[in-house]
Amino acid sequence: MLLWFIQVAIATAFVAVDIRTTPEATVMKWGFVIITLFSGLFGALLYVLSCREPLPGTHELYVAAKWRQVVGSTMHCVAGDGIGILAAAVITSHLGIPTWVDVLCEYALGFLFGWSVFQALFMKSMFGSYLESLRNTFMSELLSMNAVMGGMTAVMVPWMTSDMLAMSPDGPRFWFVMSIALCAGFVVALPMNWWLVDHGRKHGMMTVRPNGSPVPQVSAVAHAGATLSRHHEHGLGSTGRSLPTVHRDVHEHQGDMPSAASPDQQGHAMGKPASRSQLMLMTVISFLIFGVGLLVASILGDLTMHH
């Protein structure tokens, strides 16, 4: 267990220092630091593979891949929810309540913090006002939170009810078990966040460059390659525009590159918007996932045990 906390400290220090130069939104930077604090090398690996800019000026294209958008969306959810969940777990550990009540308290505080702070407050600029942001982020937070808690409960309850030392936040076992449970919640929430991103309900990574600074030359090359690929896909590769024309367009585009990537690159509209019936179906599925987590917890653990 000591090795776990050592690798968490090393991984968190690396991400906290390295991410300062990554052109990502501040809330996402904090999210990666928090998720690494929960998961150690797993979080650091997620950061390197999904967000860390491989070459100067390539972040926009690098994070445009849907799976990276999904990782960012899930990470953002688990980081925010995780803070509320851990806070509730620490508070309820001293109240002597049944485990099932503890789980519901963790769900409630995790949801409220994730929704009101990490979602609505930090994304307020996207919707114009805090109230509008609350309204627009409620369903996506609900669906994602249900999946996170389903995965967490299935791991956390059986482990803690079979190891009394893991129930006290005064000891390292508690934090170790909660970290593993949050990792499980992350994995379970990935498919749900894929659906949310694919249907425009959530976004993932963003690119924020200081003062709208121009994209470096290496990005111009990447944009040129992407432009040529698009022409080729549309049947223009053999008879379309010549390379010099594309090259000129890239340089024209390079000078007025905005400080953040376009909506298509950000994943705000990566798929067809979900219909009301689809959203209702996914809501039911999300509660079923949470229900399965509770069922596993009741079979392998003891939901009636008092802390």
UniProtKB/TrEMBL annotation:
Q: What is this protein called?
A: DUF4396 domain-containing protein
Q: Which InterPro entries match?
A: DUF4396 (IPR025509)
Q: Which residues form the DUF4396 domain?
A: 67-202
* Residues spanning the membrane: 31-49, 70-91, 97-122, 143-162, 174-196, 279-300
Q: What is the lineage of its organism?
A: Bacteria, Pseudomonadati, Pseudomonadota, Alphaproteobacteria, Hyphomicrobiales
Annotated region (Disordered) at 252-273
Arranged from A to Z, the UniProt key words for this protein are: Membrane, Transmembrane, Transmembrane helix
State the Pfam families in the record. DUF4396
